[in-house]
Amino acid sequence: MLKSFFLKAVAATALSFSTWASAQAVDLQFYFPVAVGGKAAETIQELTDEYAAQNPDVTIDAVYAGSYQDTVAKAITASRGGNPPQLSVILSVDMFTLIDEDLIIPFDDYLTTDNDKKWVEGFYPAFMENSQTGGKTYGIPFQRSTPVLYWNKAAFEDAGLDPDVAPATWDEMVSFSKKLTKKDASGKATQWGVRIPSSGFPYWLFQGLAIENGAILANAEGNKTYFDDPKVVEALQYLVDLSTEYGVMAPGIIEWGATPKAFFEGQTAMMWTSTGNLTNVRDNAPFKFGVAMLPEKVQRGAPTGGGNFYLFKGASDEQNKAAVKFVQWITAPEQSAKWTIATGYVAPRPETWETDTMKAYAADFAPALVARDQLEFAKAELSTYQNQRVTGIFNDALAAVITGKKDAETALKDAQAEADKILAEYR
After folding, report:
1. What is the DSSP letter of 382?
2. What does the alpha-carbon distance between residue 75 and residue 268 come to, in Å, rounded to a whole number?
3. Cys-Cys with 88: which of 31, 229, 263, 411 at CB 3.0–4.6 Å?
């Protein structure tokens, strides 16, 4: 009888504890830009499910919010409506916009231990340039990238070029591209030498050219641009000259989304695009390909890109703590390695590359190391207050020059004047 009473007491205590634990469960809503690709969405779901299984006191509702642009718009709308997500992956360049809208909080208040501080310091410095401002950490790098150059080794061999050597300079990119460009009897190009997209986020790939020419497009405080710098003008003229003077790239606006397909189908022998396309190229290119750092002019260089985790205002203290723990877990070496291998994004912490998983991946697929190694020369992606307006102005200037409506110097001078009007109040 005593035994029966004891068992009932234990069962009642367990039930009471279970009920208490359930009542204390923390619910998190997590916005994620599904447009980065199907495999990415599957991997995120697998990772969030794994975390939930290990942490039954936390439930994570991963909301696939569309493109990056859709995601930030939905996050802003939800916040203004009083129902913000607790956590979202949004472009690193939107940091100043989110601060200006008073929608996010810094991670610092929840990073109080020595291990927490060591964790923040463990990200690549190039990625933290678009993640910190005013001495605070607002973004945690996650699906980060840089643009890289991809080349078709078979096309190089066909053109009499060494299939294992990519162009290292602007001049070499032109000379290689001249050998790689093919035209039919009517003079129509059947294969271009190089393809640098100028739709979608034209400023991003162009920024690679600007950095390589020794220029930056904006200051670290996000309140001043340098669009009319002569070095920027020179870089834009080079981009246009690839079509108009050298005849090695298709004229006009080149579509971002169609570029990998054009590469696969042999319409271009080289392309500039995100390292986030690495897994896509590996899975779909019907030929051997190479990956290289962007070619230099006066220096190596590329912009960083991609998305950060942000903490949104309006969450409870418990939700913020749980969100930070989840971010720490998903950026830890093994989870980060799984994400990098599935997508091609750059693992944002050096320690991830030291795992056996990543060492084996890199040994089997050396191109995965190119974007990581390029971080040594990378600069922050163009980011300012009123970022969408300012980058829109700059994108319009690029389009005007690419389509022949304005010359480079005039277009960039006009863009700088417009950006100054917007950013003056933030200085």
Report:
1. P
2. 38
3. 31
Residue 374: inside a domain: no
What tokens does 225 get? 């641009």
Give the dihedral of Cα atoms 240, 242, 245, 248; nearest 10 deg: -140
Are the C-beta atoms of residues 130 and 304 closer than 8 Å to each other? yes
**What sign does the CA torsion over 69, 73, 74, 79 have?**
positive
Kindly state whether residues 277 and 258 are assigned to the same domain.
Answer: yes
pTM for this entry = 0.87
Is 286 a member of any domain? Answer: yes
Q: How many domains does the chain fold into?
A: 2
Question: What CATH number corresponds to the domain at position 213?
Answer: 3.40.190.10
Same domain, 296 and 323: no
User: Three-state SS across 278-326?
Assistant: HHHHHHHCCCCEEEECCCECCCCCEECEEEEEEEECCCCHHHHHHHHHH
Amino acid in position 225: T
Residue span of the structural domain in which 175 resides: 147-303+386-426
405-415 confidence digits (pLDDT tens): 999 999 999 99
Beta strands 305-312 and 104-105, pairing class? antiparallel
Residue with tokens 């439930």: 59
Q: Are residues 124 and 167 in the same domain?
A: no
116/209 Cα distance (integer angstroms): 37
Compute φ and ψ for 140, nearest 5 degrees: -115, 120
One-letter amino acid at 306 equals G
Total count of residues recorded for the chain:
427
φ, ψ at 188 (rounded to 5°): -80, 135
What confidence tens digit (pLDDT) does each residue in 82-129 have? 999 999 999 999 999 999 999 999 999 999 999 999 999 999 999 999
CB-CB contact of 216 with 130 (8 Å) = no
